[in-house]
Amino acid sequence: MTPRFWAAVTLAVLALVVLVVAAVRVPWSSPPAPRADQLAALRDLPADAVERGRAFHAALRLPAYSSLLLGLAVSLILGLTPLGARIVEAVGKPFGGNWIAQALLGGFVIMLIGEVATLPLAVWRERVLRDYGLSTQTWGSWTVDLAKGMAIGAVLGAIVLLAFFGIARLTPDWWWAWLSAGAAGLVVLLSFVLPVLIEPVFNKFTPMPAGELRDSLTAMAARDGVPVKDVLVADASRRTTALNAYVSGLGPTRRIVVYDTLLDEAPAAEVEAVVAHELGHAKRGDVLTGTALGALGAAAAICAAFLLGSWTGLLRLAGVDSVTSPTALALLLAVATLAGLVAMPLQNAVSRRIEARADEHALVVTDDPATVEQMDGRLALKNLSDVDPNRLEYLMFASHPSTVERMAAARAFARGER
Ligand SMILES: [Zn+2]
């Protein structure tokens, strides 16, 4: 029994557990509401707003697809030719080819090349957001956000690369076992610390001020049997006019966050409907499900990297001797980028089902489908959603059911069908 055999067995077991978790924790059995209801909902939305959402998404298409393709092309060119390995070697040279310098500086330079290549497209995207009045940022604050994101990426990347290549050097045959466990642990840890360490880098969070709305939200959570310590308000208006809310964190760091834009724009009953949706996520442990799937996926990726290491043709293509050398980091990144692209529609299919269940929860808890539907319409209008996107984009990129699907679900609920 070789380490290769055990890595393949572990990979197979992890894949099986992913399937079991997805089968058990994701509500696959409830299909979207009837298309007839969706079309009726579409007719009831203001035509000019629907058109504006479509035009906005049409304007975003070129920068978004270009960025996706360019990012992929850059990572494939760096990873599947010797170019990436040469860059890593070159930046490590002043340090005598020390592996730590290669991993840290090489990783940083490879990340920077990808960022710089797609930067003009990010600027283009932001321009579209401004043209349509969705972004409230200045170029100064936009650049600060970009720099913060890159700094967080650099720190996390440095930890991951040092751990990966360090442990791979210590135990050349069994690193995949240690690193699989480590990668899974890191995903769980990140889920815990995200709300306390990373989200505050970008936004300020304050407890919702005392008053009628806060009382009614707390009472609703208590009625629903979901212990919520606090509902927090994020200062999203410094960045966007979009309305949103979300739940993040695990255990003691779990919180429901509402955008300040939502409080300013929506009537109290609609804010309640939004929070009822978030309570649905909390009640079903959706953050935990996402974390579990992410942790299993990360562990599987490490096993796959070990197995790829014996594919000599691939290593020759990248001009490296082993995946455990820092010169292989561009190759590993290219494979990860491809895998991420393949996984995207699957992740989104899971997400849409979980979101639809949270919508249903909001309908049950509020027992007010008319308000839920009104809230769906308001969110779509303010966020310039494509309310009924084309099938291919929906399957590839949509993390939530479409606006007309959500409204149709409210109509079916009102008729007592759900
Ligand atoms: Zn949701």
What hetero molecules are in the model? zinc ion
Weakly predicted, low-confidence segments: none
Cα-to-Cα separation, first versus last residue:
53 Å
The number of distinct helices, counting runs of at least 4 residues, comes to 16
Q: What fraction of the residues are assigned to beta strands by DSSP?
A: under 5%
Strand order of the largest sheet: 1-2-4-3
State mean pLDDT (0 to 100 scale).
95
Residues in helices, as a percent range: over 70%
Structural class: mainly alpha
**Number of strand segments:** 4
User: What is the makeup of the main sheet?
Assistant: 4 strands, mixed
The sequence of SSEs as H and E is HHHHHHHEHEEEHHHHHHHH
Task: Give Rg in angstroms.
Answer: 23 Å
The coarse overall form would be: globular
What can you tell me about this protein's structure?
- The chain is mainly alpha-helical and 418 residues long.
- Helix content is 74%, strand content 4%.
- It contains 16 helices and 4 strands.
- The protein has a 4-stranded mixed sheet with strand order 1-2-4-3, sandwiched between helices.
- Strand 3 and strand 4 form a beta hairpin.
- The structure holds zinc ion.
- The site of zinc ion has 4 residues, from helix 10 and helix 13.
